[in-house]
Amino acid sequence: MVEDEAPSIRDMLAVNLRAARSARGLSLSELSRRSGIGKATLSQLESGGGNPTIETVFSLSRVLEVAISDLLDRRAGGAFTVVRGADVEVLRGEGVDLRQLRRIEAGDGVFELYDQVVRGDAAQRSQGHVGIEHTIVQTGRLQVEVAGRTVEVGPGDYVAFDAREPHCYTALEAPVHSVLLLQYRADERLDGQAHPVLNG
């Protein structure tokens, strides 16, 4: 049996960004103004073009007040699921590489599970986005700054915080391999419902 090729991050973002913007009643111009992302860039993203980065996707999540997976949803399914890291497209940022492994819906909440690598070439800053961010370090040492407070964590350590606060990850011993879990409440999902996605 040949499996269908999974849609790309660009394809998923194009479909879901249009749906989220429409549901929020925002024009491209207004979304551009609120997010600081150029109108031409947004138009390109909605057409399935461009090269979306972590910064772009997290900014859109913050402005639209939706879960990251509401923009990048792939809907992994089944009770027995295997996701090969090598088969997952990397969403790259200034200092972090993310691979979305799974979206988990439990009751009214949503959880997103990521393989996260914090590189040593730059700090990864976020203005904040919806959800609670949970990180478990596997290898390396990580500095986490949240709203002016700083902590260093190493292998086996865990840190969690309100992701709406400005935050920054910096690899002190690079690369830092970690598990990132984003947790969302029902009111942080677009209309509390699934969004239209490609291929089903």
TrEMBL record:
Q: Which Pfam families does the UniProt entry name for this protein?
A: Cupin_2 (PF07883), HTH_3 (PF01381)
List the Gene3D superfamilies hit by this protein, alphabetically: Jelly Rolls, lambda repressor-like DNA-binding domains
* Record-level Gene Ontology MF annotations: DNA binding; DNA-binding transcription factor activity
Return the GO cellular component terms, semicolon-separated.
cytosol
Keyword list (alphabetical) reads: DNA-binding
- HTH cro/C1-type domain mapped to chain residues: 17-71
Q: What is this protein called?
A: Transcriptional regulator, contains XRE-family HTH domain
Identify the species of origin.
Amycolatopsis xylanica
Q: What is the lineage of its organism?
A: Bacteria, Bacillati, Actinomycetota, Actinomycetes, Pseudonocardiales
